[in-house]
Amino acid sequence: MPSISLKTPSASYDVTLGTSLLKTLRQRITRATGSRTSRIFFVTSPALWKLWGEAVTESFESATVLFLPAGESHKRFASVEKLLEQLARNGADRDSILVAFGGGVVGDLTGFLAAIYMRGIRVVQVPTTLLAQVDSSVGGKTGVNLAAGKNLVGSFHHPVAVIADIDVLQTLPKNELRAGLQEAIKSGVIRDPKLFSFLEKNADKVLAGDTKALQTVVDRSLRVKADVVNQDELENGLRMILNFGHTIGHAIEAATKYTVLLHGEAIGWGMIAAIRLAEQRGAMSEKDAKRVVDLIHRYGPLPAFKAKAERLVELSAGDKKNRGGAKRFILPTGIGTVEIVTDVTEDELLAATSAMLQEMSAMTKTKKQVKR
Amino acid sequence: MPSISLKTPSASYDVTLGTSLLKTLRQRITRATGSRTSRIFFVTSPALWKLWGEAVTESFESATVLFLPAGESHKRFASVEKLLEQLARNGADRDSILVAFGGGVVGDLTGFLAAIYMRGIRVVQVPTTLLAQVDSSVGGKTGVNLAAGKNLVGSFHHPVAVIADIDVLQTLPKNELRAGLQEAIKSGVIRDPKLFSFLEKNADKVLAGDTKALQTVVDRSLRVKADVVNQDELENGLRMILNFGHTIGHAIEAATKYTVLLHGEAIGWGMIAAIRLAEQRGAMSEKDAKRVVDLIHRYGPLPAFKAKAERLVELSAGDKKNRGGAKRFILPTGIGTVEIVTDVTEDELLAATSAMLQEMSAMTKTKKQVKR
């Protein structure tokens, strides 16, 4: 099984990637934590547990399962408090281990629970969506949403192990697979031209859910993430490049109230806007820009949404990545390279966002004509 | 102004102690943080702000004030979420600084807000009760209560500065002053015989609120705390000695639903129980035990409460200081020395707790006779 090492000033752990990992989950957790007697608390969604609960608990003598309903709307303080009370009532102590079995919402929220229960207990991430496997399960970011914005609350709390079983992706809805692959494209664009080429050449296999092809994609994406986090754990510099496509992507999610697009889909559109901005500036060649935009659409279709360019630019100003007023923007300069710039004007951002929206509008029209 | 240094693996900051510090608060915060432009958000209680708001903001050109009603019942997730939403709506960003102006509840909760807002922003502690000045404002522990128990949630998040102004204690209710002094007695017993003697010799002055005497008490108590935390930030060993009196103290608070006694008062009774246990074991001489118990009562009266010894012992078993089943107990062995033991039996604890309750009962009877 390939295993990828995270080594930051505050944590050191392995990401194990492969197939048939679930059936030996207990042993893997014991090996990673050195704790044979710690109590295990799973946090998962009811639907996922119905599909995989039996397989997951095969290697366990006992474990407590706490449920979090699926969906972003449950990534709120009400769920946090409820689950913390359940942990306390079920006797979780400082030696207990939480296992997040689910996608981004379960992973972010369970990581946060582990960060704050009794001032910090251990968590193992077992990501079940492509998005969580390539991105959110690794790197220690945890988060909860406020009414005022997404992920405005959280902490840095690394897992003691990440166990990513490709088999679990079999039951992942196809649109979630495609959305997750947008983050893989992101990894290629910012740092791994070979991953980018692989995604170009093997699109059919990857989209069909071919295990070996998916494993290559997850593996390479994870290595990008690990490499970046190992160099800048707390996002003071390099780690910001992981936010390529996220400035406008987050604004799209906020403008559509998180109900129209999956996160990866919003990031797909956000990357297109960033590419258009890079083109306008002459930072990226027309040819490279076309390759990236084509690949994003190849892993689509990205659903259309309704929002004005002005509104998206306005919403992007409130992104929490901003610090002390300076707005950072991740600008691709080629396939595999980006730069962090702070001089993007509102006009530039507006022009790029408008270009992206026009593209969407043109595609929608084409589709309608085809339908006729 | 005496200033005490905290230097742990994760943080380094000064505690400034003195009088007339509030009028230069802005400059002190700027000096400690190096941030002249960061936005400042005060968290405080309405009653306290009425008394001190004008003095506190004298040195500020602008600041936002968020209110948390006084009392332990507000140290809950509902308050946390409400204040986080207010921070977001008022435009707090990663460079903003929270200032906790209040006692233990304000300090613990504001520290937690700072730990989780945007995954961590800076906090300055300006403690206004004796308890907060000698103990809770220093050391990075933050906390929120669950229905299932007190401080079951929180994180380690050190302030960037602690500014303790003795003047503020002038408006502190006398019972709160006395309760806070129980924690000073604790500091003396566990590590500072000179502080203990000072408290014995200067009881009248200290209890009358004499500024110079109080400053000596706060200064020496803080040095004990800083010294311990500097050696064991995360409470894996030495820091546990700060919990002297807290095993039964916490149980008393839980048994009386946090409404009968102030925290320091419960710790006073908890220390008496621990002293009786030490005596039973022969760990502490009868003479030393008498000195400690006499001093605790000298800084009383500790209010009586109703609880069965069995119930207190039962509740103490759920204390979160326990880890993986092993129960640690802080046993005084003299004035200024303690040891951490793990072999205290339930019977011993029951006997010591019963002895403490009998003492309380005897005192109550005496008082009634006197009244007649």
From TrEMBL, chains A, B:
EC number from the UniProt entry: 4.2.3.4
Record's keyword terms, sorted: Amino-acid biosynthesis, Aromatic amino acid biosynthesis, Cobalt, Cytoplasm, Lyase, Metal-binding, NAD, Nucleotide-binding, Zinc
Catalyses which reaction(s): 7-phospho-2-dehydro-3-deoxy-D-arabino-heptonate = 3-dehydroquinate + phosphate
Pathway field: Metabolic intermediate biosynthesis; chorismate biosynthesis; chorismate from D-erythrose 4-phosphate and phosphoenolpyruvate: step 2/7
Residue ranges constituting the 3-dehydroquinate synthase N-terminal domain according to the UniProt record: 67-178
Location(s), subcellular: Cytoplasm
Any one of the GO CC terms: cytoplasm
GO BP term, example: amino acid biosynthetic process
Record InterPro entries: Dehydroquinate_synthase (IPR050071), DHQ_synth_AroB (IPR016037), DHQ_synth_fam (IPR030963), DHQS/DOIS_N (IPR030960), DHQS_C (IPR056179)
Cofactor note: Binds 1 divalent metal cation per subunit. Can use either Co(2+) or Zn(2+).
Chain sites annotated for binding Zn(2+): E183, H246, H263
Cofactor dependence: Zn(2+); NAD(+); Co(2+)
Residue ranges occupied by any 3-dehydroquinate synthase C-terminal domain in the UniProt entry: 180-322
Coiled coil regions, renumbered to chain: none
Transmembrane segments: none
Residues annotated as binding NAD(+): G104, V105, V106, G107, D108, T128, T129, K141, K150
Alphabetical list of HAMAP family matching this protein: DHQ_synthase
Function: Catalyzes the conversion of 3-deoxy-D-arabino-heptulosonate 7-phosphate (DAHP) to dehydroquinate (DHQ).
PANTHER family: 3-DEHYDROQUINATE SYNTHASE
NCBIfam families: aroB
Family: Belongs to the sugar phosphate cyclases superfamily. Dehydroquinate synthase family.
Name the record gives this protein: 3-dehydroquinate synthase
Lineage: Bacteria, Pseudomonadati, Acidobacteriota, Terriglobia, Terriglobales
Gene: aroB
